[in-house]
UniProtKB/TrEMBL annotation:
The lineage of its organism: Eukaryota, Metazoa, Ecdysozoa, Arthropoda, Hexapoda. The keyword Protease does not apply. Component of the nuclear cap-binding complex (CBC), a heterodimer composed of Cbp80 and Cbp20 that interacts with m7GpppG-capped RNA. It comes from Papilio xuthus. This is Nuclear cap-binding protein subunit 1. Its main location: nucleus.
Amino acid sequence: MNRRRGHEEEDGYDRLHRKRRRVSENQEIEDRLESLILRVGEKSSSSLESNLEGLASVLEADLSTFRVKILRILTDCAIRMPEKCTIYATLVGLLNAKNYNFGGEFVDYIVKTFKENLKTGKWNAARYCLRFISDLVNCHVLAASSLLTLLETLVDSANEDGVPQVRRDWFVFAVLSTLPWVGRELYEKKESQLDHLLVTIEVFLNKRSKKHWPALKVWSADSPHLQEEYLDCLWAQIKKLRQDNWSEKHIPRPYLAFDSILCEALQHTLPSIQPPPHNEGDTYPMPRVIFRMFDYTDCPDGPVLPGAHSIERFLIEEHLHNIIEAYHLERKECAAQLLCFPYKAKIPLEYCIVEVMFAELFNLPVPRYLEICYGSILIELCKLQPSTMPQVLAQATEILFMRIDTMNIACFDRFVNWFAYHLSNFQYRWSWEDWEGCIQLDPEHPKPRFIREVLGKCLRLSYHQRVKDMTPETLAPLVPLKPEPIYKYSMEGAGKINNIS
């Protein structure tokens, strides 16, 4: 009896050990698949096309065992790394061509994720989901008519009554920001439906209230750069894209290399999707004004800065904002990622980065992150790119100073705080002589007031003699008074106070 129990215990141990080993092996394979999917599109010795083809074969072989895991990883990657949206759409397209059932399951999974993000108020994630769904049309996973039905449903939601305008704005923004990826395909296959969609959007934008616009402008004057409300600006960019026959020069489209394979795949249709109703307590993204500081005349050397109404400007700025969002807690990594922007050879990258950084810093009513976050990232950028970034930042500072007369007072204060902090990290060196002319202005004029407040902040970050030494004699009246201790018992009349007490 004892011998039998011992034998049974030994068998139980073996079974448990084998189970643990099997779980461990499965976990290793899952981790390997996750790593492969995450890293696709990164620099490697092989071409992106061969990597995608190889990865599609690997995933297809593991679908029977790790189907749910693959669905989740692909969806998460497409949402969390929207800059690689077209790469993952191509991968899904190749898998759909090999395994039609998996393509259908993936469509169901991404639609479910889209609905959940709408329901829980994860608006950015929902917008990236919609973008990915749209890109699946380019890869022949979804029918174009099916996508247009979804886009029309979303635009119809923008015409609801009794809901906040920010909710209606989001639906239109989500649809418009999707069109750079799929506009060309819809134009070629469903031109009349696309035109009808755009007319509906235009009608909405024309009757939309913009009373928030003046309160969100960094400057009260629109010269030299027009400060456009974000939906108006994107609409102008989409109209320009439409004039250019929906062709842009920024989005990588790896699926074009697999057109002969993808075009033979069977397509799926989207199920009916109705956005959840508005509930009290729901919060939506706030409207904003598009910040403009530079145009092509400010970037004399190298690549040309895309125009304010070119869709490339929107795509570049959105990508840079996403990098800041992803890495803002690690200033060194954030600066490195910004400077490693994948299309830096085609654009004046330093100018784009500086404009986006100040757009975040001056965002009204409040910036997304702490003000010092942007100051510390700009310092790291200057350290990593010492040959160009300090000069571009100095040029930006001059432009801001020249336009300070009409700057919003909250942005004025942030500009003061940033500039003093920046100077304190670069030995307080600045060409103050260029600003000597403002001493002739009224002391309360924004320009002398700016210098006075910056010097006051520098005093807090150093000491009075340092501030006095760095300032030219002509600006001496703007230097703050030397802080002196006050001993009330040594003042005139202090003896009488002592006698009374």
